[in-house]
Amino acid sequence: MKVAVVSFEVYPLAKVGGLADVAGALPKALKRKDVDISVFMPFHKKVKENIEKLGLTSEKVLDEFSLGLATDEKASLYKTNLPGTDIPVYLIENEHYFSSDDVYGSPDGGEQAIFFTKAVLEAMKNMKAHFDVIHANDWQTGLLPVYLKTSYNNEPAFSGTATMYTIHNLGYQGLFDRVYMGFARLPDYIFNADAIEFYGKLNFMKGGIIFSDIVSTVSPTYAEEIKTPEYGEKLEGVLQSRSDVLYGVLNGIDYEENDPSSDKRIPYHYDLNNLDGKSKDKEDLQKEMGLEIKPDIPVIGLISRLVDQKGLDIINDIMRYVISCGVQFVLLGTGDSKYEESFSQLAKEFPEKVSAKIGFDINLAQRIYAGSDFFLMPSRYEPCGLGQMYSLRYGTIPIVRYTGGLADTIVEFDGENGNGFGFKSYDSSHLIRSILKAIYHYHKDDDMKKLIHNAMTTDLSWERSAGEYLKLYDLALRNH
Ligand code: ADP
């Protein structure tokens, strides 16, 4: 089977959030299952920088081709590989749309996404590459299935090509004024409530949901939650109407990239049989962060976008109380300035107990995953969540809210089984209770050993998920 994964970010070429991890790791796991896989992404400025840093090269495949949009801008196509593999990554190049410093930094995200989507389709056509399945991801590529079922309906290059659309976060749908229909050269007849119109606007994600052959999201629990008004972000009706083709496939993590016994980003290595390295990583982290160096104080890590979705409001409510309970707190993140400021302030007031690094640093993130005892992730909603998975892999015990993928990966510790702690009702008093429970078990040596064992033996491999994706690709072809 020949499959193209289309994504706005792909690790390690450009990463902002969890989507990059998925788009970087899933192709490798699919390749191991004999899928002929290609990846398409924009040639962001960040990608250019990273290609150089990673010692990769890129070659031009197609020079300046037109897209049939309401712009004279042309796209070029380059090709590189996913590092360490022969999986081709096709890069859509255009100076005007992809030269901002940040992946999502374009002043006009709508035009940029349309340009990318259309360029991918035109590139496939010009390359005469026929794919059995095109797997589009998130709102930036939501219009891809729409194009295939409208303007490209009779295009031989896509004859028999099925589409799968994956929602990584329903909170970001890509809502734009109707005038973008003109820019995209999409037919007017689809601007209605049964298709891509959404309260008077053009909704890219709604297009992806309605026009693709299979829809998926990144955990079974989230796939159910989004059909309800509480989590559906006003698309619950649309999702209900597609529930016969809506599936939840839990993400995996890259086991080679994230291996505490060989990860070059952490100072000391360890595995289940010998956890000495983890204790040393903790000491190292305490030192680096300017915290009191003590092995028997639980360190709670938090690596996150600092936004309400991630539970920052309830964490903020209880911080002063939590640090009075004999814990240390290490935060790495960027986001809402109110949270950046309040955590920086706490770190100033309690330098030996709280450290707050405001910024994005994947190497430091890894040292926190390895050096912490607990990892805090009390999300308001969580499509899948990767932080809790990396934590488990590094023997760091998640404290979560049981929602979405957190509910599918974390099992409450009962003294014997279970790999974490959590609560259901989104409320700071429940969060406190879970943290206190975690601290209680931390001081019982045997419990901590069991917890770490259960965490590190949880199956989070991409092999399992890739098998499920493969079944859905088959189903997409049958549904097409
Ligand atoms: P989301 O994609 O909603 O932000 P996920 O948990 O799915 O949340 O994925 C977030 C990913 O980004 C994780 O790999 C996490 O380690 C990483 N991350 C988040 N914030 C930072 C940061 N400030 N520095 C480094 N990595 C970060």
CATH superfamily of the largest domain: Glycogen Phosphorylase B
Distance between the termini: 15 Å
Radius of gyration: 23 Å
And the CATH topology of the largest domain?
A: Rossmann fold
Bound molecules: adenosine-5'-diphosphate
Please describe the biggest sheet, giving its number of strands, its sense, and whether it closes into a barrel. Answer: 9 strands, mixed
Describe this structure in words.
The protein has 480 residues and is an alpha/beta fold. The chain has two domains: 2-252 and 463-479, Rossmann fold; 276-459, Rossmann fold. It is built from 18 helices and 18 strands. It has helices at 18-32, 45-53, 95-98, 109-127, 143-149, 179-184, 204-211, 220-225, 236-241, 276-288, 312-323, 337-349, 362-371, 387-393, 404-409, 428-442, 445-456, 462-479, and strands spanning 2-6, 36-42, 59-65, 75-81, 88-93, 133-137, 162-167, 175-176, 197-198, 201-203, 214-217, 246-248, 299-306, 328-335, 354-358, 374-377, 397-401, 421-423. A nine-stranded mixed β-sheet has the order 3-4-5-2-1-6-7-11-12, with helices on both faces. It has a six-stranded parallel β-sheet with strand order 15-14-13-16-17-18, with helices on both faces. It has a three-stranded antiparallel β-sheet with strand order 8-10-9. Strand 1, helix 1 (18-32) and strand 2 form a beta-alpha-beta unit. Helix 10 (276-288) crosses helix 13 (362-371), helix 11 (312-323) runs parallel beside helix 12 and helix 11 crosses helix 16. It is globular. The model has no long low-confidence stretch (mean pLDDT 96).
